[in-house]
Amino acid sequence: MSRRLLTACFCAIALGVPAIPQQKSAPKQAPPGSTPTAPINTEDKAGAGATASTPEEVPATFRTYSDEVIVPVTVTDLKGKYVSNLEAKDFRILDEGRPQKIRFFSHDPNQPIVIGFLLDTSSNMRIHWKTFQEASLELIWALIPGKPLFSGYLITYGNQAELAVNTTTDSDKIADKIRAVKPAGTSALYDAIYRACTDRKLVPGEPYEPRRVIIIIGDGHDSASKESIDQVIELAQRNLVTIYAMSTENFGFENESKDDLIRMAKETGGRVEYPLSNLYADVDGYLSHPSDDGNYALTVGSGAYSSQISGGILKAVLGIEGDLQQQYVMRYIPDGLDTRVKQFRQIKVDLPEYPNTLIRYKPGYFPFAARPNGFSTNQ
């Protein structure tokens, strides 16, 4: 897959984004594929908010409060198509059951973001290493396009988690490192998430502008970490990190770690893509040709085999890219928050006027007094 192919395919999908049919009491419908709204400040000039990004994509000046809660929200229709014409007044946020006032609202595809790419380099990756090596490169080029608003870093995890490339806006630095990696050893996934949340160079403005995302490229299996899954999920929640994953689960194989990968994504507001799980669903007679690569497949090297893999990878890349570019980002200061109370607080986001939608968001957060001081600032 080339960068040009990826860009063309995503543009085609983006232009086809439908809007929800408007009800009588709802705001006027925006046309499908319309330009998302720029960041707005729903407070007066003294409140927390943001100015819109300039056409040259120079980062805007954002004002935030230390006790704001940030809530990225993905909205689709029942067929999974992104909904692009909603406004702040369409959403309702409940914090422990209490309605909250949205102080910041944005639906800009150029929202600043810092992305951690966590790449499994264990021996489990050997079967389809070249495939997911290429998928990793496609993700990096799509999400880190060389603009100051977008930055990323690379953590590889085999026997141990290593910060292979520190935070940068240069996608080629990350790509070069991935090309040189060879899979071997065990898997320290949870330690990789821990490092992503504690040990890298920060970008000014985190975790609000830019916000923090982790993308795991692996099957979710862990066999070598010092940290536990419960510990790293809580750490990600405290540091306002959203976890996505591109699963390397192979077609026809049982993956005992599948539920763990789903849990990490769900409890932080992300999701998991499975590019190889249904790879041959449209291929007649695939079970009669077991592959030497350890997967039931068409004969390796055939055009149909390559086409199926390319299509699965492209769909997964576009799924993650689409989520990050089509999200609504909201912030609020919890009404009646007692910062002395440190337990996890439940939140709910809904669209009262639009019941026929699917909404994805993080289930809650830890109060500010219960958060760590923040990431390290290692250079």
In short:
It contains seven helices and 17 strands. The protein has 379 residues and is of the alpha+beta class.
The portion of residues assigned to helices is 10-25%
Give the ordered list of helices and strands: HEEEEEEEEHEEHHEHEHEHEEEE
Could you give the order of strands across the largest sheet? 10-9-8-11-12-13
Let me know the average pLDDT: 79
Number of alpha- plus pi-helical segments: 7
Contiguous runs where pLDDT drops below 50 for at least 5 residues = 4-62, 280-298
Instruction: Tell me the strand percentage band.
Output: 15-25%
The number of E-state strands comes to 17
Class based on secondary structure composition and strand pairing = alpha+beta
Q: State the end-to-end CA separation.
A: 34 Å
The Rg value, from CA coordinates, equals 21 Å
Question: What can you tell me about this protein's structure?
Answer:
This protein is of the alpha+beta class. It is 23% helix and 22% strand. The strands form four sheets. A six-stranded mixed beta sheet has the order 10-9-8-11-12-13, with helices on both faces. The longest helix has 24 residues.
Which helices and strands appear, and what pairs or packs with what?
Elements: H1 3-15, E1 40-41, E2 49-50, E3 62-63, E4 69-77, E5 92-95, E6 98-99, E7 104-106, E8 113-120, H2 129-143, E9 150-157, E10 161-168, H3 171-180, H4 189-196, E11 211-218, H5 229-238, E12 241-247, H6 258-266, E13 272-273, H7 303-326, E14 328-332, E15 345-350, E16 357-360, E17 364-365
Helix pairs in contact: 1-7, 2-3, 2-7, 4-5
